Amino acid sequence: MTLRFLLPLLLAAAPLAVSAQIAEAQTRLKSAVTEVLAVADRAGNRSALPEKLRPVLQKYVSFETMTKRAVGPGWKQFTPAQQQQATKLFTTLIIRSYSGKFTPGEHPAITYKTAVSPSADRVDVPTSMVYLGSHYSVTYRMEQMQITDVVIEGVSLIANYRSQLDAQFKKGGANGVISSLTQSVSRPQ
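Now predict its structure.
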């Protein structure tokens, strides 16, 4: 077959691939939420929650991608050991922050809205959530079926941290970022 005959077939298949990618991302996100809520229910108390949630979140969230993006352009100047240390600290910070939002036994009412694929490698899954009487708009950005950002009420988690970590990088380089993350993680919850 010539390219002229294959092109219409390829173009027809593209929307199906995107549609499958969107459906898979939504299914994966729903599985993640279900698993997180089940672990939270079994955690027993709030102080045990971060370590109980860690393996579940590490299965569904790309903390390395999140850390790299939160640090921004300065990430390229980190040594591999500094990148690993920053990722470990940032992961702990995000997990502690996330788990601190839970009230044992309370479940959010979540409505999954129509997901979109703004680029070939990303799917955004918007949700509407009611938790403890408050309404939230939360969009999960997913790449390669991993969560790489969470946008809450229009504010990107990554952009929020980038403003902080970029300032630390400008002051003290990679060591300044690691020091800042270490201080944040060492604070009591």
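The two ends are 64 Å apart (CA to CA).
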